[in-house]
Amino acid sequence: MPAKLFSPFTIKGVTLKNRIVMSPMCVYSSHNEDGHVQNWHRTHYTSRAVGQVGLIIVEATAVTPQGRISPQDLGIWSDDHVDGFQELVALGKEHGAKMGIQLAHAGRKAVLEGEILAPSALPFNEKMKTPKEMTKTDIADTVEAFKTGAERAAKAGFDVIEIHGAHGYLINEFLSPLSNKRSDEYGGSTDNRYRLLREVIDAVKTVWNGPLIVRVSAHDYHEEGLTAEDYITFAEWMKEQGVDLIDVSSGAVVPAPIHVYPGYQVPYSETIKKGADISTGAVGLITSGIQAEEILQNDRADLVFLARELLRDPYWPRTAAKELGISIEAPKQYERGWV
Ligand SMILES: Cc1cc2nc3c(=O)[nH]c(=O)nc-3n(C[C@H](O)[C@H](O)[C@H](O)COP(=O)(O)O)c2cc1C
After folding, report:
1. How far, in Å, from the CA of 23 to the mean position of ligand 1?
2. In terms of residue numbers, what domain contains 156?
3. What is the percent of the chain with per-residue pLDDT over 90, rounded to a whole number?
4. DSSP element (H, E) containing 245
5. Which of 86, 100, 208, 239 gives 156 a disulfide partner, CB atoms 3.0 to 4.6 angstroms apart?
6. pLDDT of 236-287, one tens digit each?
7. pTM of this prediction?
8. What are the pLDDT digits (tens) for 134-162?
């Protein structure tokens, strides 16, 4: 039976040539602190396209300057950013990859000069800044920034948009009762804590009708926090709003320890996929072709997202194919050395 890892997957009319996704990874390489694409990005992402990754999701890209994690993050808060992304997208597509971008706002995890924003004025830990509690205007401006970011991503030619709702950044801070202590309509009940994400998705969808992914942290690792069961409800709402796939990560909304082992987040993907009847991506210490194949064949996810393994091996699709005893198409320039 042919490997499912190398079978195509279609999301909203966009067909990925295989199930391998380069998980978003910040490379902190916008050296001029202006959020622009640099040669490093061109080389780094294009190498994985040459390596036959099906979908490349460009790292957390800030929708506002204060939404960056660091001054070296990529940004999409200005029309000036579009040209750089257009070039990056064209390079990736030239080698057969589909190109995605992760739209992000760091919230209270921004390590920047000046004011940083969050649902409540609570720092992540004692070493980090205390954020300002967002006003309704701050919230409306942020929703608008995700929308204009999505509009620019569409202009740049991206195939896929992923909204960053994980890892304790702004959207995750609103979702979790551990970081959201608001008493207005953006805090308290589950649907109130979901309100920001609901508004962001609706706003993005007014300018984007392509595949939409949301990355979530499906476990807070805290007794008063959220679990994958809670995320079934969020995923059902996202599905109703037209989100196509949930990229299931976990943790980092509070500094709780995480017990990490191969495939540790796969059960959360499985819970959400079955619980909400929605497509999912699994991520976290997925490193071998056999492991990836097990996840897909047992319907625990529709896509596998790899991060660090693709840093070590940009041609991991070839490595995985060899492990599974099959051969995949090579870039024609590499045919003599690919087998
Ligand atoms: C250098 C680095 C940068 C990362 N940056 C991001 C990011 O921009 N957005 C995001 O959602 N996750 C980010 N992550 C998390 C990865 O996407 C992935 O979820 C995590 O590393 C687990 O997968 P792995 O075991 O395959 O590395 C980053 C991870 C690394 C190692």
Report:
1. 6
2. 18-333
3. 98
4. strand 245-249
5. 86
6. 999 999 999 999 999 999 999 999 999 999 999 999 999 999 999 999 999 9
7. 0.99
8. 999 999 999 999 999 999 999 999 999 99
Q: Which of 20, 21, 22, 23 to mutate to test the pocket of ligand 1 (most atoms within 8 A of CB)?
A: 23
321 falls within a domain: yes
Question: In the prediction, which pLDDT does 339 show?
Answer: 81
Instruction: From the CA of 286, give the closest atom in ligand 1.
Output: 26
Tokens for 330, please give them: 């090579």
Burial 86-101 (b: 16+ CB within 10 A, else e): bebbebbbebebbbbb
CATH number of the domain that residue 118 is part of? 3.20.20.70
The count of C-alpha atoms lying within 13 angstroms of the C-alpha of 339, restricted to the half-sphere facing its C-beta, is: 2
Q: Total structural domains in the chain?
A: 1
Ligand 1 centroid to residue 307 C-alpha, Å: 5
Amino acid in position 158:
F
269 lines ligand 1 (CB under 6 A): no
The response to whether residue 179 sits with its C-beta less than 6 Å from ligand 1 reads: no
Q: Which atom of ligand 1 is nearest to the CA of 69?
A: 8
